[in-house]
Amino acid sequence: MKLFICFFIFVIPAFIQKSSANPDFELRRNQYIATTLAAPTGDKLILQAYEGLPLDTTTLNNILDRLFTKTTSDFDIVKLIRVLFFTNGNYDSQILPVLYSVPYWLTKSDTTRNYWSENHMIMWMSSDWLLHERYGKMIDANLDSRLRHYLKLKNQFGFYEFFSPVYAPYSLSGLLNLADFAQDAEIKLLATQAAERLLKELLMLTNDVGVCFPTAGRAYPGQYNTPYNLNHNNLIYLLTGLGDAPQTVSHAGGFLATTALPVDDIIASRTIQLDTLYQIGHSLDSGFVINDSLTDLDRIIFQWSSGGYFHPAVAGETALLLVDSNLLNHVDFTLLRPLSILSPQGFPAIAQSLSSISKSTVISGQDIAIFKDHSVTLSSAQDFWKGKVGFQQHPIMAAVGTTAVYLGSGEPKTNWLNRNSNNANTHLPYIAQKKNIALVMYRPEITEDWLGQSFNRKEVALHWKENDFDEVVTDSLWLFGRQNNSYVAVRRSCSGEINGVRACPTNGGQTWILAVGNNLMYGSFEDFQNTFSQAHYEEEWFTDSVTTNLVYYAKITVDSLTLEYAWNADHFFNAENRPALIEKTPLKLFPNPADEFLTMQWNDSGKQTLVEIYNLSGQRVFQSVTDRNEMQVPVKNFKEGIYAIRISDDFGNSEFKRMMVVH
Predict the structure, then answer these.
(1) 625 or 84, which is more confident
(2) Which residues, other chains included, contact 226 with Cβ-Cβ below 8 Å and sequence gap of 6+?
(3) Nearest-5° Cα angle at 525, 519 to 528
(4) CB-based contacts of 657: which residues, under 8 Å, 6+ apart?
(5) Where are the alpha helices (DSSP H) in 549-628?
(6) Cα–Cα separations (whole angstroms), residue 383 to 395, 430, 453, 488
(7) What is the CA radius of gyration of the chain?
(8) Residue 253, SS3?
């Protein structure tokens, strides 16, 4: 057996170096390989091949048996590619015939595999390319240009699935295969640079206890439920040594532990403090120009990879491809099946009418606010499809030591893992973040009833794991948590619970505040509480005198830091010209939005006052005359929507304001 092992070690390819310039990384790499190889569970094929050990034939055969039918077969294919290169032909006869039986790019009526999201694209393309280089496999005429285009795109604009703890590790596996094995010098260099960028972004939001809870373009609730032992945690530990040492190998961990990628600059890029606005991607319109040189099929797939599936600007091309390739039965397009009776020419109009759901799939061109100080982080996507339906996006995320604090719209679930993994938010907030404080405002757009009840649940819930904190304090609407010397503050929209979760119904709109800190920033936990308890907060609805839009406004001032936003105001609005542009009339309405009763108050003119309420069609739905300066109107039988209220007195004075009814 020793002679057998020595033979395998001898034939490991010379282009994979088994040591790095960083001795700490090398030590962790060796410990990781030894520990995970000795573990009773885990897919160890890559490590076994790298170390020159015989492969686990049961695991290998199971992978090969399911390769043609598995939805995510590319996850296994990239591992098999790595095994082929490490074992120098010893398993070629067993593996290659199966790899040759799988299509590596979209073919008609393929309802099984995904070729169009960012991580899948690079796994398929890199595998196809390396099989071509090493074994002479036939490739389609466009793979060369398509692969180079992808790699240049990632280096120039970054990753559409920004900061994704779910998908980024899989993108990394395709990139590392190219960085380690590609013969083409340009492809090898581009893949190396893209892998380095991806890993630096992972460390950008990793705190000093090895936890990465980032805002993300695509992620699942499970990535925020536990701080360690997930796929991306293996990468963090190998690069930094922070967090729990993994006991079993993960998909991405196996790739990073066996790569020749230079890691010194990646490791050195991590800082303990950061306050920045990080720009990723490009606009959807720019994408049309960027991808213009590609074939029709490739151009559409690249548009899809940026989230442009059913946006009105691409809906026509999407419909044609879905019909031509018979993809409406594909699992990824379940939501579009009710539209299969329509002609492709009708899709753009349908997409426009469903803009609350069709536009917000796009995840390119984001501004990400990032704050980090030792063990706390706060990150958020700024002004990201506010009011529209969310998909796998997590637009705001706080890490306080080893716990995640964030918000999610939709039906509150006691177990957050039971939330819809494809639609993490039924409506996305407007977020403005400065330093360690974020203003988070919700004002959902109307969604069609046929989309189902799950899209029409508008509550906002707080992910707050009470047992993760050493201390929790409530002060009116403020909620404070402390874990060791890390602090978090949340100003809730209400103090109640729904389904046992801290959550609030959305009566037109609601606003939350999230902030993080620590003892180095604020001193004691009590000092932190006092700072935010004394914050000045404003929230109101009023009418924009320029556009007559109903405006939802919120503002918070903490010490000298102010965040504010007027949702639906004239675009010239700012703090300085607010009084000139937005007329705050003497007419006061509360609650607004109203459910059963609306109370109105106005200045006492000393004369009789005519009160009128009109719907948006101009029909008068209420009229009354009073000699008082207050009136209560029953609105429980009013349809939900926006109404205009006018009060007039005998002197000819008239005041106008809008109100909303939400049941």
Answers:
(1) 84
(2) none
(3) 85
(4) 542, 543, 585, 587, 589, 644, 645
(5) 578-581
(6) 9, 5, 26, 23
(7) 28
(8) helix
Measure Cα distances from 601 to 92, 611, 635, 647, 660 in Å. 82, 11, 16, 10, 16
Closest among 280, 305, 155 to 205, alpha carbons compared: 280
What distance in Å separates the CA atoms of residue 328 and residue 319, rounded to the nearest whole number?
9
| β-sheet bridge partners, residue 368 | 278, 381
CA 497, distance to chain mean position in Å, is 25
C-alpha distances in Å from residue 46, one per residue of 11, 78, 363, 632: 15, 10, 33, 72
φ, ψ (nearest 5 deg) of residue 367? -105, 120
Instruction: Using alpha carbons, list the distances in angstroms from residue 98 to 61, 67, 332, 607.
Output: 11, 8, 25, 89
pLDDT at position 323 is 83
**Peptide bond between residue 591 and the one before it cis (omega within 30 degrees of 0):** yes
CB 157 within 8 A of CB 134: no
Contact by Cβ (8 Å): 231, 251: yes
Q: What is the residue whose two structure tokens read 């009789």?
A: 608
DSSP 173-211: HHHHHHHHH--SHHHHHHHHHHHHHHHHHHHHTB-TTS-
CA separation, residue 424 to residues 162, 170, 306, 411, 417 (Å): 16, 21, 18, 10, 10
Q: Does residue 344 have a cis bond before it (omega within 30 degrees)?
A: no
Q: Which pLDDT does position 14 carry in this prediction?
A: 40
- Measured distance CA(383)–CA(430) in Å, rounded: 5
Distance CA 618, CA 80 (A): 67
> What are 160's two structure tokens?
């559409």
Dihedrals phi, psi of 533, to nearest 5 degrees: -65, -30
Q: Count other C-beta atoms under 10 Å from residue 605's C-beta.
A: 16
Q: Which of the 8 DSSP states describes residue 435?
A: T
> Over 80: is that where the pLDDT of 631 sits?
yes
Q: What share of the chain is helix, strand, coil (3-state, %, to 5)?
A: 35, 25, 40
Sheet holding 501-504, edge to edge: 273-280, 366-373, 376-381, 396-400, 403-409, 460-463, 501-504, 497-498
Q: How far is CA 332 from the centre of its chain?
A: 18
Q: Quick check: 556 and 471 in contact, CB under 8 A?
A: no
pLDDT band, very low/low/confident/very high, at 7 (cuts 50, 70, 90): very low
513 SS3 class: strand
Q: Is 270 exposed, middle or buried (0-12, 13-18, 19+ CB in 10 A)?
A: buried
How many helices and strands (H and E) does the chain possess?
Answer: 22, 25
What is the per-residue pLDDT for 581?
37
- Residue 508's pLDDT band, with cuts at 50, 70 and 90, is confident
Q: List the structure tokens of 490.
A: 């949340």
Q: How many CA atoms lie within 13 A of 633 on its CB side?
A: 25
Q: Does the pLDDT of residue 567 top 70, yes or no?
A: yes
Please check whether residue 380 is in contact with residue 470, taking contact to mean a CB–CB distance below 8 angstroms.
no
